[in-house]
Amino acid sequence: MATVIPYVPQQITVHLGAPSEDAANVTVDFVDYVKNVASSEIYPTWEPSALRANILAIVSFALNRVYTEFYRSRGYDFDITSSTAYDQFFVNGRSFFTNVAQLVDELFNDYLRRPGFVEPLAAKFCNGTTVTCEGLSQWGSQNLAKEGYTAPEILRSYYGSVEIVNNAPIQGITSSYPGRALRRGYTGPNVVVIQTELNRISQNYPAIPKISPVDGIFGAQTENAVKQFQQIADLTPDGIVGRATWYALVRYYVAVTSLAELRSQGQRFYANSWATTDPIEQGDRGVKVEQLQYMLNVLAAYIPQIPPVTMDGIFGSNTRQAVIAAQRWFGLPETGIVDYTTWDEIYNQFSGIENTSLRDSENFPYTVAIASGTAPRSRYSKTTTLAQFPGSNLSTGDQDTVRQEAPR
Question: Which runs of consecutive H residues, i.e. helices, occur in 237-372?
Answer without folding.
Answer: 243-257, 287-302, 317-330, 340-356, 365-371
